Amino acid sequence: MKVWLLKRINLIESRRYSIYPVMFAALSGVLVVSRFLEPTTLPELCLFKIITGLDCMFCGLTRAFHAISNGHIQVAINFHPLAPLAYLLVLFHLVLAGLRSFGIALPRTQLRVSPMQMFYATFAFFTAFWIIRNLVLILL
Fold first, then answer.
1. CA 134 → CA 57, 91, 128, 131, distances in Å?
2. Contacting residues for 105 by C-beta, under 8 A, at least 6 apart
3. Which residue has the higher pLDDT, 7 or 29?
4. Is residue 95 part of a domain?
5. Model's pTM, two decimal places?
6. Is position 66 within any domain?
């Protein structure tokens, strides 16, 4: 019984860490595509904007990532003011996923925040910013 349980725990641990190479590849792809893909050649894909005429909370991030990848930070901020923060988050998670892919674990910090709590906090921050941004556009 004990051996089976230990094998089961190891299997779960190996599955949990198998996501990091996929995450590393996906985030690398985002950065490479944002560097070379010209967003002005793409059709309008935001269903929310097509239906309502208002920006969604992520509208402008593709163009902003392209601008940051080409070294134009101010242009990126004009497209989406939270783009530098989002870009830094992508870089941060790319580095973490890369380290974890090679089995390098960083020492734990005293911060007791789960990844899901960080995700919810980031999503709430983007949502609040989006509401304020659209209210300003509607009222002006």
1. 9, 28, 10, 5
2. 99
3. 29
4. yes
5. 0.76
6. yes
